[in-house]
Design brief:
70% helix
Length: 112
């Protein structure tokens, strides 16, 4: 049961890590995050709050008992990072192609 709780907690943490890039890629439809910047204080607060909430859920005694989570070693936060970076990189390249070739195939098929 302890191994299952550790695995479920690591899965929860991986969702939080991937949500970081999901939030950043939804910020703009065409502009790169590097062109747009990170000036939205509500969004910045959301990223920090989501991360702090995950830390509370994972590490604060009593909360883990109620939610059946187990404290993780810091190394267990990292396996989702490559996927987060892949999602972020893919969308930055997609936005670049849309800017370089307006009205092209990528824009017609991936622009929402």
């Amino acid at each position: 049961e302890s191994a299952l709780q550790h695995a479920q907690t690591a899965y929860f943490v991986s969702i939080v890590v991937v949500q970081w890039s999901d939030l950043l890629i939804c910020k703009t439809r065409k502009l790169s995050i590097f062109q747009q910047g990170m000036t939205n204080y509500i969004m910045n607060f959301g990223i920090i709050f989501e991360t702090l909430l995950a830390i509370v859920i994972v590490y604060v005694p009593g909360v883990g008992t109620a939610l059946q989570t187990k404290p993780l070693r810091m190394v267990h936060w990292f396996p989702a990072m490559p996927f987060s970076l892949l999602i972020f990189g893919y969308d930055e390249i997609r936005k670049l192609i849309i800017r370089l070739f307006p009205g092209g195939w990528v824009q017609r098929n991936t622009y929402y």
